Amino acid sequence: MSGKTILVTGGAGFIGSAVVRRIIECGDDRVVNVDKLTYAANLANLAPIEGHPGYAFEKADICDGGAVGEILKRHQPDMIMHLAAESHVDRSIDGPADFIHTNIVGTYQLLQAALDYFRSLDGPRKEAFRFHHVSTDEVFGSLEMNDPPFNPDTAYAPRSPYSASKAASDHLVQAWGHTYGLPVVLSNCSNNYGPYQFPEKLIPLIIIRALAGRNLPVYGTGENVRDWLYVDDHADALLTILKTGHAGETYLVGGNAERSNMDVVRTICAILDEKFPGSPHTPHENLITLVADRPGHDMRYAIDASRLRDELSWEPTINFEIGMKQTVEWYLQNQAWWEPLLSERYDGERLGLGANGSKKQ
Ligand code: NAD
Ligand code: TYD
């Protein structure tokens, strides 16, 4: 599959930028990154490949079907990977409108533009075309501790505005595949972590607050369980699914790393204790504070990724303990990346940091 043009939506976000970097660093494929540059985007995530001749950026909103259609016509991609979305559950609870608009209406507009474009293709390019929709395990709802993990036949049961909007987008993608013959492939992945994750999500938020000696907010009892996958592994899985996955199929992607939130936070604390034995905040565990639970908080997500392993021979390579050490190290080395986000583009109140990033208890 050398020398293809892959259009990636949301390529300036956390996972999208890992995908874009990987495509450019891995070979001779080209990338067109279509991103609206919301608060969650950061072009600094793409600094390692900026200026590469195989990389093009188009600032556009996927809800603007006309603009997307024009970009497709101009760049003539061989494949589309759709990652653009509003992605944070807490924000979806505070303000669902953007989630409905981008995740549902935006996916619809993108599908229509992609279908028009697909119909304009012929021969081997049409046969090889793929629309890869990147989704979340949260569409399957919440598991109890002893339930078997989600598998591709698990019924949809989303429970937050975020997961409901992603579930709707999955249904639209499947409908466009089934009804109009658009060659779609879907993947539903568990929680990602790693470099360049916006510090509203659990892992970067805890690392940054622990470094500042602030309290570490754990929702409810801390018993809620997530499966964690290192973001570069996810990017690798996505490219495997794009290139070798079967049209019409759904693949579940997971990290074989179910951990309670309390375990995750304690892991970060232990890494920091080891790195900074003389810190006044050591032991960092003393900073852990149970806070009010998230409304409707899903108890557990878990993944049965056997289809991906058995059919496409893909398995994660980075275990949770190693990935967490690498992630903490990255945030320590890259304060210049995250510090401006606390003050300039993000409501520091939610992080418990003042509007200008100053610390307050
Ligand atoms: P993110 O919030 O870090 O990035 C989203 C990107 O999409 C940003 O660059 C943003 O500017 C862009 N975007 C948002 N609205 C847009 C619009 N209307 N038009 C064009 N671009 C727009 O998200 P992420 O964590 O990188 O997640 C990427 C995708 O993967 C999402 O679809 C998400 O649902 C899915 N996913 C995420 C996780 C996770 O743990 N983060 C897990 C499984 C699946
Ligand atoms: P998050 O990173 O927001 O991802 P998601 O909601 O998509 O799983 O949260 C991961 C888990 O951590 C989730 O169970 C909520 C919990 N959490 C906290 O306990 N404290 C926090 O400050 C945050 C942001 C999340």
Map the helices and strands.
Elements: E1 5-9, H1 14-26, E2 30-35, E3 55-59, H2 65-75, E4 79-82, H3 89-94, H4 97-120, H5 123-128, E5 130-136, H6 161-180, E6 184-189, E7 191-193, H7 202-211, E8 216-219, E9 225-230, H8 231-244, E10 250-253, E11 258-260, H9 261-275, E12 288-291, H10 306-312, H11 320-333, H12 335-343, H13 348-351
Parallel strand pairs: 1-2, 1-4, 2-3, 4-5, 5-6, 6-10, 7-9, 8-12
Antiparallel strand pairs: 9-11
Question: Care to describe what's here?
Answer:
The longest helix has 24 residues, at about 95-120. The chain has helices spanning about 15-25, 65-75, 90-95, 95-120, 125-130, 160-180, 200-210, 230-245, 260-275, 305-310, 320-335, 335-345, 350; strands spanning about 5-10, 30-35, 55-60, 80, 130-135, 185-190, 190-195, 215-220, 225-230, 250-255, 260, 290. It is of the alpha/beta class. It has a domain at about 5-195 and about 230-255 and about 300-320: 3-Layer(aba) Sandwich (Rossmann fold). The strands form 3 sheets. It has a 7-stranded parallel β-sheet with strand order 3-2-1-4-5-6-10, with helices on both faces. A 3-stranded mixed β-sheet has the order 7-9-11. A two-stranded parallel ribbon has the order 8-12. Helices cover about 40% and strands about 15% of the residues. The model is unreliable at about 355-360 (pLDDT under 50). Helix 2 runs parallel beside helix 4 (about 95-120) and helix 7 (about 200-210) runs parallel beside helix 9 (about 260-275). The chain binds nicotinamide-adenine-dinucleotide and thymidine-5'-diphosphate (TYD). Thymidine-5'-diphosphate (TYD) binds near residues 217, 219, 261 and 294.
